């Protein structure tokens, strides 16, 4: 089974790119982030015509997450991250697909840091860590994937010295990610490719993509039930070079059925 995550940076603006990628690569499950669309304007029919069932949690102009499944039923399990009933940002959705428990997330950026946005990022991270601990207690395969807005190590960024004060790379952010991993989660990309330079995001500015001046901020975390089922993982980097594309590239894993 091929499972992918992709920050589309506007599902309507990037719909031709999304549909082309779906047609060419045919992932079985796709987690999308940054839809930038309210629920009523999600392109439901186009996604269905591409062969995918879908659930989504949209929001006007910002945020938004969705899960797509090709020829499989999706059972929605939740669309908010527990811990703060006042938080109305659309950043999380959970589903059951073919005996997989999948959480799709769009963790806050947090810039400028320090400041209220960075505080919100760290608070959201604490809530995610709490939910992740609960998910580890269920006896079934679990995947937590999406745009984490976290650069885990210096290997995951071009010229790390330029990112020291950025919310994606600050010590507090990396410590929160390490704390999450320490619960018992496996970073799928680093399990298979511990030393390689792998990026998932390239800024639109300064010819970042052509220079491969990128970041790795889109991650797959797997629980122990999936460690031995992980076959392969990668980044569809070429999609970042398409016309009118997102600043992220799709990331995917293959697992044994």
The percent range for helix content is 10-25%
Assembly category: single chain
Q: Which strand order does the major sheet show?
A: 3-4-2-1-14-13
CATH class: Alpha Beta
Q: In angstroms, what is the radius of gyration?
A: 17 Å
Describe the biggest sheet?
A: 6 strands, mixed
Query: End-to-end span in angstroms?
Result: 6 Å
**What structural class results from the helix and strand content?**
alpha+beta
Compute the average pLDDT: 98
CATH fold category name? Deoxyribonuclease I, Chain A
Name the helix and strand elements from N-terminus to C-terminus, one letter apiece: EHEHEEEEEHEHEHEHEEHEE
Structural domain tally = 1
Proportion of β residues? Answer: 25-35%
Task: Categorize the overall geometry.
Answer: globular
Low-confidence stretches: none
CATH superfamily: Endonuclease/exonuclease/phosphatase
Could you tell me the number of beta strands?
A: 14
Helix and strand arrangement:
Blueprint (H helix, E strand, L loop, with lengths): L1 E6 L7 H11 L3 E5 L10 H6 L2 E6 L7 E6 L4 E4 L13 E6 L2 E7 L9 H21 L5 E6 L23 H12 L3 E2 H5 L8 E2 L5 H4 L2 E2 L2 E5 L1 H4 L2 E6 L15 E5 L2
Parallel strand pairs: 1-2, 7-8
Antiparallel strand pairs: 1-14, 2-4, 3-4, 5-6, 6-7, 8-12, 9-12, 10-11, 13-14
Helix pairs in contact: 3-4
